[in-house]
Specification:
Layout lengths: L3 E7 L12 H14 L4 E8 L18 E3 H4 L5 E4 L6 H10 L2 E6 L3 H10 L17 E4 L1 H15 L3 E3 L7 H7 L15 E5 L11 H13 L4 E6 L3 H6 L1 H7 L3 H4 L3 E3 L5 H8 L2 E3 L9 H8 L4 E3 L9 E2 L5 H14 L4 H12 L7 H16 L4
Parallel strand pairs: 1-2, 1-4, 2-3, 4-5, 5-6, 6-7, 8-9, 8-11, 9-10, 11-12, 12-13
Helix pairs in contact: 7-13
InterPro entries: DUF2827
Organism: Caballeronia fortuita
Pfam family, one: DUF2827
Length: about 375
């Protein structure tokens, strides 16, 4: 069988755009790394769907991850995976006439985004909505399936299937290379700094429950907690009366043991400012942040159901159980730092682009894709 030439779409906003702060573009790179390991793949390129020029200013290795325009790719791909940039109806028609396959790779909470756009007057597509109904397949990462699969299937008129989640420490390692101890967790004597780093941009990852977990741990062990830091929350703490009123009910806030900060670079913040990460998710049970924290050996207290074996797991919305895991970290984590880090990395190996089962999964997906009749 002929090996496949694959393109993965991205959408560049400027010529020197970083990959670090953009999960979608990292996803495209990780997928490219995995597909290059598939025996039925000849080549993989990143395909920019915007009008931004592709130059040497791009801060990634263009030999390792070739990046081209759609015009340069359209006659040279057998499969186009639409991930970070959407093509229009004319481009779709062109690919179909050539016999190329088109896959929608879904790695965002599109149902949540659509719902919030409508309910809270946060326009995201407006009059420019284009729902492509000519995909040959819909691939979605596991954490978005529960809430968004029906949304994908009804709107795009195609069955959606869950595909393996992919992550690599390649960008994390590049970011931490210049940090002391490569940014890995180091034991610390005395009271601990707790941190909550939820994005606070929609309902799936919000800081309130982690702050409540920190509060319950503080009530039990006030002398063992130095500080609670809530990032991505400065605007809430200064502008939102409801948030301010809620936070002022907490002892850890009243006793001036909490600060509400802006946005930070994750690996630098981990290395310089914190000892324990406390997290909570609602329909977001697996993401890069968890893997970055655990790969670096930091204790992650979380309720993510797709990676219960990582970090220190608590169930559902059980803040008391979460607080007990925080206390457990305070009492035990520093006695097993190396073992914890090594265990986390061994567990995370299932998501790496060279994992044999993961590669086998994508090889099978591609075989099934090309065996389908064209839409």
């Amino acid at each position: 069988m002929k090996k496949l030439r694959i393109g993965i779409t991205i959408g560049l906003f400027h010529e020197a755009e970083t990959l670090w702060n953009n999960g979608i573009k990292q996803n495209a790179v990780f997928l490219a790394e995995a597909l290059k390991n598939c025996p039925n793949v000849e080549s993989v390129v990143l395909v920019n769907t915007t009008h931004v020029a592709i130059t040497k200013q791009l801060p990634w290795d263009l030999e390792r991850w070739p990046t081209v325009t759609f015009d340069d790719a359209k006659d040279n791909v057998d499969v186009l995976i639409e991930l970070g940039g959407q093509i229009d109806g004319n481009a779709t028609d062109y690919l179909k006439r050539r016999g190329a396959r088109l896959v929608s790779y879904c790695c965002g909470f599109e149902y949540v985004h659509a719902m919030e756009s409508i309910l809270f007057n946060k326009p995201s597509f407006g009059d420019n909505l284009f729902v492509n109904q000519r995909y040959d397949d819909i691939w979605m990462i596991p954490q978005v399936a529960n809430i968004s699969a029906p949304y994908f299937e009804v709107m795009r008129r195609q069955t959606a299937q869950v595909v393996p989640f992919i992550w690599s420490p390649i960008f994390l390692n590049a970011r931490t290379a210049s940090l002391p101890h490569s940014g890995e967790y180091q034991p610390k004597a005395g009271p601990r700094r707790l941190s909550v780093m939820e994005p606070n941009i929609n309902v799936v990852k919000f800081c309130l429950y982690p702050a409540m977990i920190a509060e319950m741990a503080y009530r039990e062990r006030p002398n063992d907690i130095e500080l609670l830091q809530v990032t991505n929350a400065q605007h809430l703490a200064t502008q939102c009366r409801e948030f301010i009123a809620l936070m002022n009910q907490l002892d850890i806030v009243r006793n001036h043991k909490a600060v509400f900060l802006g946005r930070f670079d994750t690996p630098t913040f981990l290395a310089e400012k914190t000892d324990i990460i406390v997290s909570h998710q609602w329909e977001n049970p697996l993401n890069y942040f968890y893997l970055e924290v655990c790969w670096q050996g930091y204790p992650l207290v979380h309720n993510a159901t797709l990676c219960t074996d990582l970090g220190y797991y608590y169930r559902d919305n059980n803040v008391c159980e979460g607080a007990q895991r925080v206390v457990e970290v305070i009492d035990q984590h520093d006695s097993q730092v190396a073992q914890y880090r090594d265990k986390q990395r061994a567990l995370i190996a299932r998501y790496l682009p060279n994992n044999a089962e993961l590669v086998k999964g994508y090889t099978g997906l591609l075989d099934a894709l090309v065996a389908k009749p064209l839409r």
